Automatic annotation (TrEMBL):
PANTHER family: ABC TRANSPORTER ATP-BINDING PROTEIN ALBC-RELATED (PTHR42939). This is ABC transporter ATP-binding protein. It holds the Pfam family ABC_tran. PROSITE patterns: ABC_TRANSPORTER_1, ABC_TRANSPORTER_2. Transmembrane segments: none annotated. GO terms for molecular function: ATP binding; ATP hydrolysis activity. InterPro entries: AAA+_ATPase, ABC_transporter-like_ATP-bd, ABC_transporter-like_CS, ABC_Transporter_VariousFunc, P-loop_NTPase. It comes from the Bacteria. Keywords: ATP-binding, Nucleotide-binding, Transport.
Amino acid sequence: MSKPMLQVNQISKDFATYSVLKDISFTIKREDIYGLVGRNGSGKTTLLAIICGLLKPDEGTIKINGKSYDPKQISMSFQPTSLYGYLTGKENLYLLSTQPEKAISIVKTLHPEQSSDVLNKKVRSLSYGQKQRLGLAIALSKKACLYLLDEPTNGLDVLSSENLSTLIHDMAKKGSSFIIASHEWGIIEANCTRLGMIHEGQIIKELHVHDSKDEPTVRIKTTKSVTKEQFMQISIIKSALEMSPSVWHIKLVSKQDISTFHKILTDKGISIEEFMFIHPTREWEWTYQQLSRGESV
Ligand SMILES: Nc1ncnc2c1ncn2[C@@H]1O[C@H](COP(=O)(O)OP(=O)(O)OP(=O)(O)O)[C@@H](O)[C@H]1O
């Protein structure tokens, strides 16, 4: 097993009397794309700011490749509000990026058709999404081993989001790691290899996306009402959660069980009118929605 590239050890942070982060620990390996999810105010930005050295934790340590690190090894996405409005996009890149030519090429990659406007117009006349592309280009052009992207798809159109995903994948394949904090499940599903859910100052759940595909979840709608006990008597079912009347999320013990799933249900007298696979990150989306509504999970 490869060694962790990033080690976050027992990080705590209070603002006045409010504990934002409480004893947070997790690790990231080379090429991981780690999705940090949690409702507004859960501490995602605070954690990213601590990891990149902008904010000091009250307790805990951050290590990269087993050593205390130089913040130069980390690149955090640049908020579009930090750009200079009276300069053009290109002038901002020359001022704020350590590799402006690379940043220009990233702007072109994100949205080829609009890149000339984004690079040559004064930033104050650009839309939020166009400024976001400049911010991303500044962050992604820096030579770093870890990239921290805070809400990277805010304001981006579909084309720019898709191109951003391709760019992230390409960089990860070459050895870069990412932490992406986002409320937008499209970017999480398209990219993340691991997820961490932050709630009340702690990471309460972690998911290895690839591993969880071994225990697939299906969403079914039954023609008649079925109880949880009936499902749980079936040996290939690991868990059953009723989402709404007759709509269930069923986790199977193994992906091999998919081929026999229909037949076993039919043998037990359970017929289904709808069936679909659920991507592991989508299961999380429901948990996240429950948390956002203030429900316990
Ligand atoms: N400098 C600060 N001083 C005092 N409180 C702060 C400061 N920065 C953040 N907070 C508080 O810490 C909590 C966590 O904020 P943070 O921005 O980290 O959350 P977040 O998960 O990134 O939220 P969002 O999803 O809305 O971006 C919030 O309650 C916020 O008000």
